[in-house]
Amino acid sequence: MNVRALLLFAIALAAGAQGPDWIPVDTISPAERSQLLSFAARLETEDAAFIETTLAGIRVAALENDGDYRRAAVVLLSDLVRRNRRIISRQGRVPVTAASRITALAIIADIGGHDAHESFLEALKNDVDPSVRAYAARRLPAIGSDTQGALSAVSAALRAAIRTGSGEEEILPYLDAIGALLDDPWIVPGSALAEALLALANGPYSARVRRSSSTLLELLLER
């Protein structure tokens, strides 16, 4: 760890009953607060392997606890994933790798419940790496109850991928997610999605992309 991370770690261990606003005061013990603060300090490192080890520790601790501890862990993990952070600074240092951001999202999906939905939407909309956006899209249909909002976000990501000429490794997870979301009979797809699927079905793409797009278009016509 760098000097700043070591200092933060020492502060975390001595935090006692105090804690930042993302850690509830009344429902989490001083020991649990110190543990969460130490996790936050460790995530300041530039060492990708150490970050992965820390994320594994957060997963174990969150699964051993519940309620507000898990919610605080989701806030911390979401901060690691997002671009504009308020807990973990890392200004001027090596960015968190896409692999670590995906690991953080996977933990959020496992422990976050309804709190995970916004984290996945933000990753889908704002992450700079297509592999992270694709992962968020794949997991999003099974997270939360706002299928309409999820479909809108995935549809927007699909249209952006077509517009920017993204590869099929990003487009295919979007199509899979849209297919899963369309299982909801109350969802309203919108004409923009149909136009995007039509462009894929008739565009210079692989047979798999064209076939998936055509199948989804047929589902839209049946609604």
Radius of gyration from the alpha-carbon trace, in angstroms: 20 Å
Q: What shape does the CA trace take?
A: elongated
Termini separation (Å)? 55 Å
Strand tally = 0
Question: pLDDT under 50 segments (min length 5)?
Answer: 11-18
Please summarize the sheet with the most strands. none
- Whole-number count of domains: 2
Please write the string of helix (H) and strand (E) elements: HHHHHHHHHHH
Q: Which class best fits the helix and strand makeup?
A: mainly alpha
Roughly how much helix do the residues carry, as a percent range? 55-70%
Question: What do the pLDDT scores average to?
Answer: 89
H/I helix tally: 11
Strand content: under 5%
Give a topology summary.
Blueprint: H1 3-13, H2 30-42, H3 48-64, H4 67-81, H5 98-111, H6 116-126, H7 130-139, H8 147-164, H9 168-181, H10 191-201, H11 207-222
Helix pairs in contact: 1-2, 3-4, 3-5, 4-5, 5-6, 5-7, 6-7, 7-9, 8-9, 8-10, 9-11, 10-11
